[in-house]
Amino acid sequence: MGAILVFVDSAPRRRHVAAAVARAGHRAQEAASGEQALAIIGAGRLDLLLVDILTPHPGGYQFVCELYARRDLALPRMVFLAAPHMAGEARLLAQVSGFSGAVVDVADAAALRAAVDAALSRPPPAARLRAPGRDRLYPLVSRLCGRVADLESCNARLHAHATLHAAQLQVARSALDREVVKRLASEEHLARQALRLREHAVRDPLTGLYNRRYLEASLPREEGRAKREGAQLGVTRVDIDDFRRCRESFGRAACDEVLRAVGRRLAGLARGEDIVCRCGEAKFALAMVIAAAATLKQRAEALCAETPKLRIEHDGRPLGPVTLSIALAFFPHNGDSAYTVLQVADAALQQSQATARNRVVVAGARH
What we know:
The protein is α/β, with parallel strands linked by helices. The chain has 3 domains: 3-132, 3-Layer(aba) Sandwich (Rossmann fold); 148-202; 210-362, Alpha-Beta Plaits (2-Layer Sandwich), CATH 3.30.70. 55% of the residues lie in helices and 17% in strands. The chain has helices spanning 11-23, 34-43, 60-69, 87-97, 109-121, 134-202, 212-229, 243-250, 252-269, 293-306, 338-355; strands at 3-7, 27-31, 48-52, 77-81, 101-103, 210-211, 232-240, 275-278, 283-290, 312-314, 317-319, 324-331, 360-362. Strands 6-8-9-7-12-13 form a 6-stranded mixed sheet, with helices on both faces. α4 runs antiparallel to α6 (134-202) and α8 packs across α9.
């Protein structure tokens, strides 16, 4: 088995050739530059040199010429390595240079081993290389130059295609970015629209308070919270006294001002977790979880006493005084469910207004 030097500048290609040579039982060495190759050749006996014809600085053929010019070095057998598209030129250059042969497809391990075996079967060079005549080099150089021109033209076309595809990719990416931004904006708009629709579904548009639908849907939740906290759920029902006469006297727009004012005053008495809603034309409700019924009664009496003092005007005309009738009921004292307590408060308010107005009444205990 022989000692073989692989002189190829491309590391993956060099390792591939060296591995194929080693698998065939030879001792393979690698060189990535002309300096490394000369050092290995000068260090000991070498049976075969595999050199890439297109190795740059120096080129494969130029390196071989320099090697032949060194009188102090023992010349090994030599084989050119070349890509398939350089097959004809590689074989012609090997022929005019006195080489052992050329391998034009290093990926073909069988062809590589056959070329190596054929080269090792021949005797090593006995004489120094003599430069081929110009009549033999000129056609070869012309063919090599033509091949290089073809490669440069192919490279230019590939570069143009790559540039075009990069530009198209950038346009597509920009269009995709715009589409993503548009979709995100659309989804955000739809989310805001859904939120507004939900608010419209549970809010009274005049006062901004919740409506009766929201109150009735929230009562089971508030009932559960009262049970967990061991507290009471107080339900306050509020009705504006003589509201129909107010509308007949001042008109609908003026009564809307009254409703807004009472709604603001009622909301001012509530905490963040309480539920304040408008339940009818002039009716309101407040649901809050409290520790003591007296607390809610004190707030209701304060509301009843302070509402007549409100300064409400419309078109420069004072409206009022406005008075309220208020009824209170509590869970579980007045019912076994929050909805039942709401009905008890409604009934207590109607009974109270039948005898007197502008006062606070507390529903009696259930029997």
